[in-house]
Design goal:
With 87 residues, this protein is an alpha+beta fold. The protein has helices spanning 27-37, 57-65, 75-86, and strands spanning 20-22, 41-45, 51-56. A three-stranded mixed β-sheet has the order 1-2-3.
């Protein structure tokens, strides 16, 4: 028998950058991106493209579960509130 050749494709996906959403958008916008890209987290970025927080599907679920319309929650407010809780 000859040497075994591994044929596993280790090429990274064409799109490896994280899905991002500007902090001026709403949780509804983030939820739409999660749905479109089939992901569970969105990096929230400032105007310069620097990450200022992360929103997950659990944030979307919690807001929906409490009857809060997703288009009324601004990401800048959500990220700010999460930072205050972490202090």
């Amino acid at each position: 028998m000859g040497a075994r050749t591994d044929t596993t494709d280790t090429t990274p996906p064409a799109e490896t950058r994280p899905v991002t959403c500007g902090f001026e958008h709403t949780l509804s916008s983030a939820a739409e991106l999660m749905w479109k890209h089939q992901c569970r987290t969105i990096s929230v970025v400032d105007a310069d493209g620097h990450q200022v927080g992360v929103v997950t599907d659990l944030h979307v679920w919690a807001a929906h579960n409490h009857g809060v319309p997703l288009d009324t929650i601004r990401l800048v407010d959500l990220v700010g509130a999460l930072r205050e809780r972490g202090k």
